[in-house]
Structure formats: structure tokens, C-alpha cells
């Protein structure tokens, strides 16, 4: 299976003022496209040709760094576009909200931990809401890594590479993360991933 770049699930200007058209044009059309193209080139002739994206991500981790970086980022970005929506944030579907309260303490505590994980990721990477061994937690990873390679399922992730926020927020990563949790998260998509994983 080769990688392809899907269209964004909303218009380029749909996430304003929290994420601009210019950011989405660079991030989707250039950065994500580069992961797709580089990933396809690096996939050729490897044992991973014909495997699913998840299998490629898990299988190449620690074995083929070039392929892993691009396949991991392709996986992360496929979900990232769906983890956001216009007028996002807001209410969390009941079952998931209950599970967050059980495992993390409260929705407010989750938001604090999630923002802190993103702020605390030194350099490029991602912050996550992860399901592992039946339990939710907030985690973070460097570069293109994600919870899949650590035995978990990513339910929500936020890209903290500078290309994700520098046009709109410059160096203010905490402001970007706060805007993401309060105004961008597509909780219906997170809940859908949760129901598939349990
Ligand atoms: Mn990115």
C-alpha cells in the first residue's frame, strides 16, 4: 500500500482564528505531502511494501529510521486533521468524559496535563491522550513517534513541531495548545477512536 495525501476534512480557512489558512496550506500541502512522498520512496523495495500503515509504523520503529519517521508522521497527520474541526473543543461525549474523569481525575485536569505535555516536549514532537492496557493517560513523544510504538492507542494528538504553530503563534506554544484544547478538538472523532479501541 502506498501513502496518499487526503484532502483536509474542512476548508483551509475553517479553523480561524485559531489556526490560519496559511498554516494549513504549509502544514498540509507541503509538510504532510513531503512525508507522503518521502515515505513512498523509502518504502520501495523494503519488507514493508504491501503492509498496512499501522504495520509499517510499528514494524519500522527502531529498524528503519528514515521510513519510520515519514510513515509515523503520515499516520500522525492523517489523524491530526481529523482531531480538529471548526468550533471544536466543547462537550466530550459521555462515555469518554466518564473514562477521562475516572483515569485522569477530571476533564480540566486532562486539559492541564495535555497542555503541559505539549509545552514540556523539548523540541519537535507530539502530546497525546493514550489508551494503554485499558487506561487513559497523557503522554508525549519526540519527532514522529506515537503511542502505537509504545504499546498504546493514540486517541488524540497535538503536533508541537514549530511548523504547526509558528505562523499563528510565533514562539507562544502554550497559547497554541490552549487554543487547540479549547477551540479545535473534534471530540466526536476522539470518541470514535475510543469506541473502536475498547
Ligand atoms: Mn506537522
List keywords for this structure.
globular, 2 domains, binds manganese (III) ion, mainly alpha, 3-stranded antiparallel sheet, 198 residues, Helix Hairpins, 8 helices, minor pseudopilin epsh fold
Protein model, in words:
This protein has helices spanning 21-43, 53-60, 65-82, 94-104, 107-120, 166-169, 173-184, 187-197; strands at 125-132, 135-142, 153-159. It is mainly alpha-helical and 198 residues long. It folds into 2 domains: 21-82, Fe,Mn superoxide dismutase (SOD) domain (Helix Hairpins, Orthogonal Bundle); 94-197, Iron/manganese superoxide dismutase, C-terminal domain (minor pseudopilin epsh fold), CATH 3.55.40.20. The protein has a 3-stranded antiparallel sheet. β1 (125-132) and β2 (135-142) form a beta hairpin. α1 (21-43) runs antiparallel to α3 (65-82), α2 packs across α3 (65-82) and α5 runs antiparallel to α7 (173-184). The model has no long low-confidence stretch (mean pLDDT 98). Residues 27, 31, 77, 159, 161, 163-164 line the site of manganese (III) ion.
Amino acid at each position: 500500500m502506498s501513502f496518499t495525501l487526503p484532502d483536509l476534512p474542512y476548508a483551509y480557512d475553517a479553523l480561524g482564528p485559531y489556526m490560519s489558512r496559511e498554516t494549513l496550506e504549509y502544514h498540509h500541502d507541503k509538510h504532510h505531502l513531503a512525508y507522503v512522498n518521502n515515505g513512498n520512496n523509502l518504502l520501495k523495495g523494503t519488507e514493508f511494501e504491501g503492509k498496512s500503515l499501522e504495520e509499517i509504523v510499528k514494524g519500522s520503529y527502531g529498524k528503519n529510521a528514515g521510513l519510520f519517521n515519514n510513515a509515523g508522521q503520515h499516520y500522525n497527520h492523517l489523524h491530526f486533521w481529523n482531531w480538529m474541526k471548526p468550533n471544536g473543543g466543547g462537550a466530550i461525549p459521555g462515555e469518554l468524559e466518564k473514562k477521562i474523569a475516572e483515569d485522569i481525575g477530571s476533564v480540566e485536569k486532562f486539559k492541564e496535563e495535555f497542555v503541559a505535555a505539549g509545552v514540556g516536549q523539548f523540541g519537535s514532537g507530539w502530546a497525546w491522550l493514550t489508551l494503554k492496557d485499558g487506561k487513559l493517560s497523557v503522554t508525549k513523544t519526540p519527532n514522529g513517534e506515537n503511542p502505537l510504538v509504545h504499546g498504546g492507542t493514540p486517541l488524540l494528538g497535538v503536533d508541537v513541531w514549530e511548523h504547526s504553530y509558528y505562523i499563528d503563534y510565533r514562539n507562544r506554544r502554550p497559547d497554541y495548545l490552549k487554543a487547540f484544547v479549547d477551540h479545535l478538538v473534534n471530540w466526536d472523532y476522539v470518541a470514535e477512536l475510543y469506541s473502536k479501541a475498547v
